[in-house]
Request: fold
Amino acid sequence: MKKRFPWFEIILTVVFLGAQMYAAFSDSYNLPNNWYTRDDAYYYFKVAQNISEGHGSTFDGIHPTNGYHPLWLLICIPIFALARFDLILPLRILLVVTSLLQVGTSLLLYKLLKGIVSHPAAMLAAIYWTFDINTVGLLYRTGMESGIALFMIALFLYLLYAFEKKWRDAKPSLRQIAMLGIVGILVIFARLDLVFLSFIVGIWIVFRASPIRYLLPLDILAVLASALTAFILRLGIPGYYNSVNAALVMIIAGLIIKTATFYFTGLYRHPSNWHALAILKGAFFGTVISSLLMTLFFVAGSRLKILPPFSLVILLMDALLTFVFVLVIRLAVYSFHSARSPVRDIPPLDYLKLNWAGWLKEGSVYYGIVGGTLAVYMLWNKLVFGTFSPVSGQIKRWWATYATTIYGSPPRTPLSFLMMDPSTSFNAWNPFASFAMGLSDQLWQINHFAGSTAWEHDYVPIILGILAIVGGILFLQKRKTVRAVAMAGIIPLFVGGWLQALSYSITGYIFPQEWYWLPELILLLITAALLIDAGVVLLSKWMAARVFVWTLTIAAGVYFGYGFWSANYTLMPYGVTPATKPYMDVASYLERLTQPGAVIGMTGGGNVGYFIHDRTIVNMDGLINSFDYFQAVRNGSGADYLYAGGMRYIFVNPDIIEANPYRGQYTNRYKIIDDSWGGKDLMEFLPSPAP
Reply:
């Protein structure tokens, strides 16, 4: 067959990279002020610069830190080694690197999608991902790890797609499994909370010839959801956060006991052998037996004083919810399953005896690489930094233990707990959730105001209505939908995305950012491509309609491409800013009022720390500080710790350091030097509270 000339890929790449190169070489002032404006990005930049100059993994040169995702930092190190010569040059190079990652992600998603949906649908998805201003602004202009993480997810999905096309014809080698494991650990190192995606992908690979591959991930999500819902219905969300440890124990016990029980009660049989009564009976007995075992486990544990007392009401509610979720999962799978002759129905124990050796061998390879490498990384963190995981995440979860802090509060409503609240930062499913809110506003003419949750009562039905319509469209083309689920890794994306999002709610977390939610966004893109494809297939029955579809696709490419070029042209001008203008006015301000060598404390301070000369910026909120500092802040001695480290100035709004989570540690320990910088005061840091 004649190989197709990749005209679309070439045009997409040339147009996009042309616009990005234009931006990369514009006025120096543009890079820190119009492009890399996120303070958090400079945490990476400064740490990478310090490592390249031999100072170790530190932001301020004083305190060691691990508050970052490792793969992006490794990429930044050689780039920011150039900062010793020119502070802007690394930013230009990084813009090029992130542009290559973005277009690489677009092309991988296009190659994946064109094997599943029509070419126009795949092209529209790639065009959107490449040129959508919001996507670029939220995920790539941040300078954060999202660029490399998205590329690794897209590469992972594409390799799974290639794996899916071949494994039925030839048994995969252990080398192929190992390669997927290597990419799986790179996905985790790109963003550590993607561990859930990599874990679920392992199930998808190892159990590929069994219904376990799709039922077990969905059951894991069901076990999690039933336990959380039971706790919240019984205690409310504020009460839940007083019982987080009990909920986690219940979830872990449920994952072991329930899924094992489901297997041996036949709930993982092939759908070809199901019928309605069998599904109902299996769900009932599987739930009853597993819930009885759960109750015995907790009763015995509490009597032996290994576990705290558990509410029998919560256990009963958990059982009822588990039954509902398990039943719904089986009914959904059965409804999408193609009608075929029943396959050989092997009893669960015999099936286990037949397959356990292969599962163990492949699972050991995949999870040995993923889990083993992750364990080594965590051990290295413990030995070098004193803690197994990045201190930044621990600090945000500690902040959530307060009812409220200057940084916000943990989820307080069901929608924010589900990470589907567009009115807050708890919005993992954007742009879907924001679209639903906009539609709700238009239909019901809702007026949002601070503290009001009345809008949720009209917003939730809109979400459910949209999901029902999407489900109906996918069901009407269920053969293509089932193929897409298998080929595009939709179940690992769906379950991995939900586990990632809920992991923030479960343990309590303050102020998650939009660049966290990456599997969710790719899942939404694939779903949108499937919906577009349904329309394309319908229109393709007529020649005139096919011409219209291709015309529309080309027009969309021109529209988005032109809009992207125009945005870059406006955002990154040439010859507008004098070369003598300081990159950061605040850095010049601090240099003017402090002496060379001064150590200045700030909450945040990433960009100032990168651009300031002959001074040191210490991060006071702890996100890019040491684990020892985190311990000091938590026990009320954070101010003493920083003073002992040489900090003599504070540049912050005084109201911040008088509120939670600092709890007055700085009360009477500063004297204002200058208060002319809007919102922040430069203060002398005193060795002890003034009388």
Q: What stands out?
A: Residues 639 and 666 are 6 Å apart (CA to CA). The mean pLDDT is 92. Strands lie at 599-602, 616-619, 649-652, 670-674, 681-685. The chain is about 65% helix and 5% strand.
